[in-house]
Design brief:
Blueprint (H helix, E strand, L loop, with lengths): L7 E9 L2 E6 L4 E6 L11 E8 L2 E7 L5 E5 L5 E6 L3 E6 L7 H14 L2 E6 L7 H10 L1 H5 L3 E4 L9 H7 L3 E5 L6 H8 L3 H11 L9 E5 L5 E4 L1 H4 L8 H7 L1 H7 L16 H8 L4 H19 L1
Parallel strand pairs: 3-5, 8-9, 8-11, 9-10, 11-13
Antiparallel strand pairs: 1-2, 1-4, 1-12, 2-3, 4-5, 6-7, 12-13
Helix pairs in contact: 1-8, 1-11
The structure holds guanosine-5'-diphosphate and zinc ion.
Length: 302
């Protein structure tokens, strides 16, 4: 190994089975092989590589990740899907329907990952001004939990401007149920997707339809990570501790409960219940908290 060949710094920008396309610090796109079968570099990872030839690198190590999105596979193993993102955009829409429980599950996941959630209500073109206003009032509670709430329509590009400003310079991933408009939105956020897709087909990694995940630069030092696994990311096994930590409004109020281990169900002098009664804590959030907590306790017993 020549001294000058070590430590090529790169970012994994596409991933397909054992193969990765990486972009080096100097802007070259190269194929990168894993040194060992156990290598787990995922899209978003910063990696250190050695050079094999002009177009090929070998990944030697993965640098610390500031965030990861993971799910448990069929064999019960933890699989990392993507890394190094700053925010999770939770997409919902009046069609197929705004599901508050699904929103809250994603927000709990974001809190536990330690990244900022952004709630995006797409397809507002389908709403009357009155119903849009009702949703704005109903979803105001998310703002008090520190979550940005954006109303827009992927079919009306001008309505996306405030959202694009929020995303500026950040790395984000889009999650949410199928049919809410995630692919339509991603097309607007990444005007130059062909750059990555073109590099991909030249690299011999595969056609873009077979590739598992991408990192699309948005041209402002931000990026969108897109993959079917990330888009379909479901949150079905949150533990009781995750739930308690993941409802920011409930968690903050809990500091004033009489019992430090208050479950906020039936205990006396519970600041959370008082908050719900006074309207400070949204009643739907509270009932979603209770139902997710009950689910978590139930699955812990099995
Ligand atoms: P995904 O499954 O979340 O990726 O959703 P898609 O982007 O595939 O969109 C699902 C359907 O919703 C498609 O028929 C889109 O044309 C439609 N759609 C997406 N955004 C909007 C929108 O803002 N308004 C309306 N009316 N339809 C939309
Ligand atoms: Zn309590």
């Amino acid at each position: 190994m020549r001294g000058t060949d070590v430590d090529v710094k790169a970012r994994v920008i596409a991933h397909h089975r054992a193969h990765r396309l990486v972009k080096t610090d100097s802007g070259d796109m190269c194929l990168a092989n894993a040194r060992t079968r156990g290598d787990t570099a995922v899209v978003g990872d910063n990696v250190l590589c050695t050079r094999v030839d002009d177009n090929t690198l070998c990944i030697e190590s993965v640098q610390d990740r500031r965030s990861v999105l993971a799910r448990t596979d069929r064999r019960g193993r933890n699989r990392i899907l993507a890394s190094n993102f700053d925010c999770i955009v939770v997409v919902t829409a009046p069609k197929p329907g705004i599901d508050r429980l699904i929103i809250d599950q994603y927000l709990v996941a974001a809190e536990n990952i330690g990244v900022e959630p952004i709630l995006l209500i797409n397809k507002v073109d389908l709403l009357t001004p009155e119903s849009e206003n009702r949703f704005r009032i109903e979803l105001e509670c998310y703002k008090t939990c520190g979550c940005e709430v954006v109303f827009c329509s992927a079919h009306t590009p001008a309505s996306l401007q405030p959202f694009l400003e929020i995303l500026h310079g950040r790395v984000c991933i889009f999650v949410g149920p199928s049919g809410v408009g995630k692919s339509s939105l991603i097309q607007h956020c990444v005007p130059n997707r062909e750059v990555t897709v073109g590099a991909l087909s030249r690299s011999g990694l595969g056609s873009h339809t077979t590739v598992a995940a991408y990192w699309y630069e948005t041209g402002d030092s931000g990026a969108v990570i897109d993959s079917p696994g990330v888009r379909e990311f479901r949150v079905d096994h949150l533990g009781a501790t995750d739930i308690a930590r993941g409802f920011r409004d409930v968690y903050n109020a809990a500091a004033d409960c009489k019992f430090h281990n208050c479950s906020h169900r039936h205990e006396p002098q519970c600041a959370v219940k008082t908050g719900v009664e006074s309207g400070e804590i949204d009643a739907t959030r509270y009932s979603n908290y209770l139902s997710l907590l009950a689910d978590a306790e139930q699955s812990a017993r099995h």
